[in-house]
Amino acid sequence: MKITFFFLFIFTLYSCTDKNLKQQILPILGHPDIIYKMVDGKEVADTVYPKIIDFSYLNQDSILIKSSDMKGKIWVADFIFTNCQSICPKMTREMKRLNSQTKDLSNYIQYMSFSIDPSNDRPSVLKKYIEMNEITAKNWYFFTGNEARTHALGIDNFLIVAEEDKMAADGYAHSEAFTLVDREGYVRGVYKVSDPKEVNKLENDIRKLLKYEYSIN
Question: I need a surface site. Which of 82, 84, 144, 171 has the fewest CB within 10 A?
Fold first, then answer.
């Protein structure tokens, strides 16, 4: 199956006037809105960048996890399903490798894998998948929830394709990608998993983000 991988639009923060944002080491991705407001009697333009919306899902232990529960950490996310026989096994292996390589930063990073086939991927199925892949990381959730909302979350927020596709080999089309989200909920990078250099770049970007923006070495 040919997996679609795309970036929507890339914008840097160097020209951003949002006072809640400082100059960033990595770009922000997504469609920003330009709003106009009066400052000292003059109309000025302000750039407002999109954030990941609030969400809640059951994890592999049948515990309801809200996005607010993970506030204060940077996120690395992908969208998979356990019956996938094409790119998902590689994605899980690469996520596992990345998680291991960033173990020294585990207190500051939340890994998450969203199932795009929740009718099959109930918490017990996700738990078996974790065991089968010998995943022991404590900072990695596997999520299951409403399918339509999950697909929309992938496309509209995490900037990757995640949708049902009867023409695809496994019945779903989704990007072979990991998404990096900062502590404030802004998408800072999307990385193609089939290229090992991209995954290595993601690790470097994680470390840069934590070091230069949050003073965590």
Answer: 171
| Helix, strand, coil percent values for the chain (each to nearest 5) | 30, 30, 45
Query: Contact 152/164 with Cβ under 8 angstroms?
Result: no
Tokens of 160: 């990757």
The separation between CA 152 and the C-alpha centre of its own chain, rounded to angstroms, equals: 13
168 vs 165: CA distance, rounded Å: 5
Q: What is the mean pLDDT of residues 70-96?
A: 95
| pTM, two decimal places | 0.85
All structural domains of the chain: 56-214 (3.40.30.10)
Structure tokens at 24: 């960033």
Encoded amino acid at 112, one letter: M
Tokens 């250099």 belong to residue: 197
Beta-bridged to residue 180, according to DSSP, are 76, 189
**Smallest Cα–Cα separation from 77: which of 13, 143, 12?**
143
CB–CB of 76/95 below 8 Å?
Answer: yes
pLDDT in tens, 141-195: 999 999 999 999 999 999 998 777 777 677 787 789 999 999 999 999 999 998 9
Nearest to 165 by CA among 155, 153, 156, 174: 174
Per the CB < 8 A criterion, the answer to whether 142 and 130 are in contact is: yes
Where do the H-state alpha helices sit in 82-215? 88-101, 123-132, 147-156, 196-208, 214
Q: Is the pLDDT of residue 18 over 60?
A: no
